[in-house]
Amino acid sequence: MEQAIFEERRDQIHxxxxxxxxLACNRDSLAGAVSQRACVFCGSRVVLYPIADALHLVHxxxxxxxxxxxxxxxxxxxxxxxxxxxxxxxxxxxxxxGGEKKLKAALLELIxxxxxxxxxxxxxxxxxxxGDDVAAVCRDVAExxxxxxxxxxxxxxxGNKREGYTAACxxxxxxxxxxxxxxxxxxxxxILGDFNLxxxxxxIRDYFKRMGVETVANITGDGRVDDIRRAHGAALNVxxxxxxxxxxxxxxxxxxxxxxxxxxxxxxxxxxxxxYAVAEHFKDRDPGIMERAQQVVREELSVLLPQLGQxxxxxEGKKVAIYVGxxxxxxxxxxxxxxxxxxxxxxxxxxxTKEDYEELAAIxxxxxxxxxxxxxxxxxxxxKELDVDLFVGGVKERPIAHKLGxxxxxxxxxxxxxxEGFVGMLNFAREVHASATSPxxxxxxxxxxxxxxxxxxxxxx
Length: 461
Fold this sequence. Notes:
Elements (H helix, E strand, L loop, with lengths): L12 E3 L24 H9 L5 E6 L2 H6 L18 E2 L4 H6 L2 H15 L3 E6 L1 H6 L3 H12 L3 E4 L8 H13 L14 E5 L7 H12 L2 E6 L5 H5 L6 E4 L2 H15 L3 E3 L5 H15 L6 H27 L3 E6 L2 H13 L3 E7 L4 H10 L5 E4 L3 H10 L4 E4 L4 H6 L3 E4 L10 H16 L8 H16 L1
Parallel strand pairs: 2-3, 2-4, 4-5, 6-7, 6-8, 8-9, 10-11, 10-13, 11-12, 13-14
Antiparallel strand pairs: 1-12
Helix pairs in contact: 1-7, 4-6, 7-10, 8-12, 11-12, 12-17, 13-14
Function: This protein may play a role in the biosynthesis of the prosthetic group of nitrogenase (FeMo cofactor).
Pathway: Cofactor biosynthesis; Fe-Mo cofactor biosynthesis
InterPro entries: Nase/OxRdtase_comp1, Nase_comp1_CS, NifE, NifE-like
């Protein structure tokens, strides 16, 4: 039976080349559509969680803390306090009488026990409903303990994941400006929007180091509170995953005058362009920096390109569906798949803006389906209709791909292998090849039926 699209969502779906580009976005999810999107609280958690030497306390029912435990899988080169998911575990009695005393007691005990550099307190839906004054409790505990205790106003009912990003940026901004910047190089950057899922921020930092660029703060993968406190001393903010940390970059520009550029470390062109953009920014201060950036790119590509060609032979012509959290990542993935000879036929995101989708439409092939804030019904429909060979998404998209007998590549929270940088492009090609060319997909009922129909058509001719 043909699967239908919800009538209320038709304006959030567009096929490139079919009429003028118009796509509704950045609005609340349709009730009952089982959106792939997360809530405000989850959005704040995924941004702040990787700060490894901070205490992260969820003020709310235990389910909120369980849902977001280790949600990024972010690696740390030192402390791992972030991997412990603490909760005030609000019960019915707390809902009736308030949870402020419980919150204060939890903070004092945890700070005494773990000696964090700072503490983030996440307000959840129920906290907003019962009216706990989280900010007042945080001020009181900060005075008693002498460390920053920062409220994250992330009540889930406020909106969607994007509002959670803003809440996280506002929380981090309270830390900036309080650290010593006297020893920071004039050729220096903050890396914003990378969460070090598989050690990737270490790869990117190494590229910049080879160029002669100092990295002041990782925001937030392998992050440290003291580094964020002195982040205002950097000369440039380099923003990846612009939806997550762009607000922080804008706030730092307004208050401290630090310019920012957007970057992506996925794929060959975008990784190289990001290095060149940073070199371009600093070329007047350091005339040799562009030559060093070019040298880094040459060295990496001399190793990468010969190996990439081997995978392209098998992948040429295969079709791909992409559904990711931020639209900026989708741009890079489309370019990466073109290097592998593959065609993107479906692309979408949870939090894209009108400008993001206009840019996507400009680089997509005619007939490509573009979706905003999609749901399992729509994604399943298009994967079957477009006869996709590979689905790239996150943990919530994996079951869709496997149930439909399609290869899957995790490009979000759960991956364990680096996919950023030049070495990441090789890892990506290897994973895509293994997933898309596995012989198991020949035995999927849908594929078998299609093969029989094709054979019958040939016999008839």
